[in-house]
Amino acid sequence: MSMHKTNSEHGLAWVTGASSGIGRALALRLVRDGYSVVVTSRNHEKLVALQQEAAADGRIIVLDGDVTDPQDMERVLASIEYDHGDLSLAVFNAGVTIPVRGDDLHRDAFERSFAVNVNGVVNCLLPAVAHMKARGQGHIAIVSGAAGYGGLPGNAAHGATKAALINLAESLKLDLDRIGIRLQLINPGPVDTTGSPRLGFARSGMVSADEAAQHVVEGLKSKHFEVSFPKRSITIAKLSRLLPYGAYFALVDRLTRQGATPPKATNTRTSAKGRPHQAV
C-alpha cells in the first residue's frame, strides 16, 4: 500500500476554509515550506489579504468557492488542474460549529452543520480523488476533530458531523492507499481561534490557531493516519470513551459544569454562504 508523502516539489497544495483560523495559519505555514497554495472560502477580501501577507514568502492562489456547492468545487479543481498545475496535497478544513442544546433544538443548526462539515468535504473529495487517481498519487487530509470521539452537551450537531468524518476517513483509507492516494485524518482538540471558550469548556489546554497549524504540518510529514492534538485533551477524550456510560456521563457532567457557558457560533473558518463558521 502507498505511503506517498508529498512535499513542495510535487505540486500545489489546496486548503479550504482558509480565510481565518487554522486554515489561514496552515496556508501561511505551507507557503513558508515552499508550496504554492490554493486557498478557498467565500470571503474574497480575507483571502486577498492572506495572499498579500504571504507574498514575501511564496505564492498563494485565491479561488473563491462555496464547499456546499458541488459544481463550485468541481470548478475550483478544474481551475487548479488547467490553470495552475497538478494538485499534490489537499487539506479539507472548512467547517462550522453551531451549538445545539437538547432543550432548544433547531433543524437549521443540523442542516447547516451537515451541509458544510460533511457534504462540504464530500464535494471537495470527489474531484480531488479523481484528479489524483489519474496522476497515480496524491495526499489528502480531512480535518475532523476530537468532538467526534463522543457526545458532549451543546455538541449534538457539530459532534455528529465530526464523528461522520472520522468514519468516512477510516472507511476510505485502504481503498485510496491502493490507488496511490494517501489519506490522513486531522483531529484537533480545543483550538483558541475566537478568544472565547468552546462548547461549555474552559480555555485551559487550548492551543492557538498557529500552534494547531504547526501540529498539522508536522503530522502531514509523519507516517501516522491520525494527527491529533493537544496531547492532554486528546488523551482524556479517548480514554473517556473506554468508560461505561454511567461513568462517562458523570465525567462529562463534571467537566462541562466547570466550563463556561456555550458560546454563540463565531467565524473562524469561512466556507458557505457567508454564515458563521468556527474551527473543529
UniProtKB/TrEMBL annotation:
InterPro entries per record: NAD(P)-bd_dom_sf, SDR_fam
A GO cellular component entry from the record: membrane
Domain of life the protein comes from: Bacteria
Keywords, comma-separated and alphabetical: Oxidoreductase
UniProt xrefs under SUPFAM superfamilies: NAD(P)-binding Rossmann-fold domains (SSF51735)
Signal peptide: none
Region (Disordered): 259-280
A Pfam family per the record: adh_short
Gene Ontology MF: a single term: oxidoreductase activity
Family stated for the protein in its record: Belongs to the short-chain dehydrogenases/reductases (SDR) family.
Protein name from the UniProt record: SDR family NAD(P)-dependent oxidoreductase
Lineage summary: Bacteria, Pseudomonadati, Pseudomonadota, Alphaproteobacteria, Hyphomicrobiales
